[in-house]
Amino acid sequence: MQAMNPLPRSDRQPFRPAKLTAVALVLALAACNQQGQALTDGLPADGYRSVYPIAVTEAPQTLDIPVGTGTGGLSPDLRAVVADFGADAARNATGPVVVMTPVGSVNQAAADYLARQIKAVLRQSGVAATYLRSQTYAVADPRVPAPIRLGFTRIKAVSPPCGRWTTDIMPDGQKANDGAEFGCATQANLAAMVENPNDLLMPRAETPVRGWQRWEMLQKAAKGSSPSATYPTSTF
Questions:
Q1: Rg (Cα) of the chain, in Å, rounded?
Q2: How far is the C-alpha of 181 from the C-alpha of 183, rounded, in Å?
Q3: Domain spanning 60-155: which superfamily?
Q4: Distance of CA 39 to CAs 26, 35, 36, 48, 176, Å?
């Protein structure tokens, strides 16, 4: 029997370690995926975060200033409130700051006079004059003193309103799902407490290391001592 001749070198398939590496990587990822799925299969579904999601969007920020029929000016307390509102607008406003005065109310004259003082306080708080807008609004009952309304738009964290009450508030253990209102207040409170809504979207950039802290660590390293912090222990 004649022995079979090997294929010429030009017809041989070259050895490709990259293919083997890719196959090994796919198998490793598949094993990790199966392992992660096994670890999370028994965990409860994240229901209330899906039902009441927190969204980062542009939303209005408003403030009502009460005005009496005989009000002669801003009180120190109201002046401080308006100044704080103006400082917030100067930092976070995404549009103009609007000062709305009532029309046809019993306190219209006092509101018009007080609005000029409010604009001056807003300018002193950092709001540019070009960003101030004056508007009027109609009142429902002209016999009732209406407030001056301040407003601007900003980026805020908001959640859907609570109060659906379509089912029982308590979770249903038999159906393995949450009640209609379960988690709504938690989501609403979290959205209201977030100082910087962008923290919900991405982490903040790292800040530079303090100079004195870097110098102290270098001194410890030069002496051969541990750079870790030490806390004194004492008994009471």
A1: 33
A2: 6
A3: OmpA-like domain (3.30.1330.60)
A4: 20, 6, 5, 21, 19
The single residue listed with the structure tokens 């530079």 is 208
Closest CA to 132 of 99, 91, 89: 99
**pTM for this entry:** 0.61
CB proximity list for 56: less than 8 A, separation 6 or greater: 155, 156, 157, 158, 197, 198, 200, 201
Residue 85 CB-density burial (10 A; 0-12 exposed, 13-18 middle, 19+ buried): buried
Q: Which pLDDT does position 16 carry in this prediction?
A: 52
> Which two structure tokens, joined as six digits, stand for 103?
């029309």
Q: The tokens 């609005």 sit on which residue?
A: 115
Specify the domain boundaries for CATH 3.30.1330.60 within the chain: 60-155
Highest-scoring range by mean pLDDT, 29-33, 35-39, 95-99, 226-230: 95-99
